[in-house]
Amino acid sequence: MTTPPPGLRERKKKATREALREAALRLAMERGPDQVRVEDIAEAAGVSPRTYNNYFASREQAIVSAVTADREARIAAAVAARPAGARLADAVTEAVVEQYTNTGEREHAALLLITTRTALRDAFLDATAGIEHPLAAVIAECLDDAGTHTARVLAAGVAAAVRIALEGWLQPAGNEGAAGSFGGEGLVVPSGSLPDELRAALAPLAPAFDAAERRTRP
């Protein structure tokens, strides 16, 4: 049996992942997330449950992935494409705000679904960790500083800040003072402006970005 070239294998894996997350979201929207099994998602995507488990650890992860798919790559690409002379802290902030707030009708409907279940909200928040590695690689290139931990620390800080902003935004209705406390399965009503939450959470990182840029200037 001939082994497909790496490019073909990667394309097949990407197509399978896309089919699974699209099936997961469609079924969750049609039936409600509690009525969707991993077996249902796998069947709808034309793969086995075993194959499903190679891509996602839970149904919640697959559902959320349909909303967050490739967001971390787009954030990194936007930072890499910043105009010459643009402040790195500003480029990171604008990239994050753009990718988290410029959503279409389908993504908006999916986000409303995510707010109805604690497990989905937790998976949505956990997805912020995916920002770290691609962003660290781009920051290292921007700083011409691949040999130290600076880029990784800055990227980890961004991921943590985004999670904190989302926790503050996704507050349970009637419990505005307990950011990140998602008890029960009631509807969470997003509070305030998400762009403002993101900018406020990222602002403390700006001095660290500025200091790193100063160290790498000729």
In short:
Helix content is 66%, strand content 0%.
Task: Give an account of the 3D structure.
About 5% of the residues have low confidence. The chain has twelve helices and no strands. The protein has 218 residues and is an all-alpha fold. Keywords: DNA-binding, Transcription, Transcription regulation. This is TetR/AcrR family transcriptional regulator. It comes from Streptomyces amakusaensis.
Give the end-to-end Cα distance, rounded to a whole number of Å: 55 Å
Largest sheet: none
Radius of gyration: 19 Å
The overall pLDDT, averaged over residues, is 87
What is the quaternary state of this protein?
Answer: single chain
What structural class is derived from the secondary structure elements? mainly alpha
Q: What fraction of the residues are assigned to beta strands by DSSP? A: under 5%
How many helix segments?
Answer: 12
* N-to-C order of helices and strands: HHHHHHHHHHHH
Helix content: 55-70%
Tally of strands: 0
The low-confidence parts are 175-184
Gross morphology is globular
Pfam family, one: TetR_N
DNA-binding region: 37-56
Organism: Streptomyces amakusaensis
Protein name: TetR/AcrR family transcriptional regulator
